[in-house]
Amino acid sequence: MSPSEITFESADGPLITIAIPTFNRAALLRGCIQSALSQTYANIEILVSNNASTDNTEEVLREFNDKRLRVLRQETNIGLLPNWNACVAAARGEYVVLLSDDDSICPWLLERCVDVAGKQSQVPIVVALTNFRLSSSGRTIPARTSRRLGSGLRNGIDVLLEFLKDEIIVTMCSVMLRTETLRLRGGIPLDLPHTADVGTWAPLLLEGKVGFVNEACATFNLHDNSETARLSVAQILCDGWKVANLIARNADERIKVPSLREEVKRQARRCFSRRALVFLTYHRSNGASVPEILMFVWRFRSDLMIVDKPSVLRFAAIILCPRPIAERLRHLRQAFSKDWRDRQTVVRPG
């Protein structure tokens, strides 16, 4: 029997695999593994897949003398997403958390996820929330929590709509996936180099009841040295709309109520069109010229037409204003948004 066919379960709950695909990030890997080993939930394995790293990754791995840590060693660099799938194939846990080597998870992540899943072992996914750390400034943006949904078992469509409307912040490192469900779906999609994470977990929210943790349980590290940061602007924009189409196809298959089905499809298009404008704003702040930005706007105008007017106006204000004014407007908007959210009422029970 191969390692991937072995599962364990104890009185403390199901075995959960925290899978860490890594390549040439020895300095960041150490903290990532430490965050995984610090879980308050006991029944875990930490699976690191070293994708033929050429730095001192092996030295860092030898620092850890913990029986919960297991290492896969790829003989050659098989690529980012195939390395993720190598983790999925080798995971022994009933559930798996895919944790990038530059991100970290809070000690309570798995405990919260298991608590909301309860005895529903067939729950395909448990979604928790994510903080964003901006490496360039050292600033951490706290996770955006839902004002409508509390932690617990929820209708997956409700959780998906919260994500698509930008009411919550979710990234791959704060999502616990049922391993067998993920394998049956073919693992991580290889045709989405920028948005494979969302393309993996978002469709599972259309499977019925899911777990939801309305609390920050991980931190996503945003920096310019990521694999996806090396992709072209066109690739990044196109991948977003591919995921929107993927969600739409799954909605057509899974959602029986026509009005709800169309709402999910509409919000999926809006979500990734808004993100396209955000990315173009970021691209402009990194030195792209106004004509270059407008070229992309024109090229993808049919996709961007669905964006709500406030998002378009914010985009235009930042792109067309002189940079000092644009920066001031951005800071004012962030301050206003924080103040507005602080004044909201507490989360209502879902």
Structural description of this entry:
The protein is α/β, with parallel strands linked by helices and 350 residues long. The chain has 2 domains: 225 residues, Spore Coat Polysaccharide Biosynthesis Protein SpsA, Chain A, CATH 3.90.550.10; 110 residues, no CATH class. It is 44% helix and 18% strand. The strands form 2 sheets. Strands 3, 4, 5, 6, 7, 8, 9, 10, 11 and 12 form a 10-stranded mixed β-sheet that branches. The protein has a two-stranded antiparallel sheet with strand order 1-2. Strand 3, helix 1 and strand 4 form a beta-alpha-beta unit. Helix 5 runs parallel beside helix 9, helix 8 runs antiparallel to helix 9 and helix 9 runs parallel beside helix 12. The longest helix has 28 residues. It is globular and about 55 Å long. The chain starts with 8 loop residues before the first strand and ends in an 8-residue tail after the last helix.
Enumerate how many helices there are, as a single number.
13
Radius of gyration, CA atoms, in whole angstroms? 20 Å
Which CATH class of the largest domain is shown? Alpha Beta
Cα shape: globular
Query: Helicity, in percent?
Result: 40-55%
Q: What share of the residues does DSSP label as strand, in percent?
A: 15-25%
Give the count of structural domains.
2
Q: Key terms for this structure?
A:
350 residues; alpha/beta; Spore Coat Polysaccharide Biosynthesis Protein SpsA, Chain A; 2 domains; ten-stranded mixed sheet; 44% helix; 18% strand; disordered N terminus
Concise synopsis of the structure shown:
The chain has 350 residues and is an alpha/beta fold. 44% of the residues lie in helices and 18% in strands.
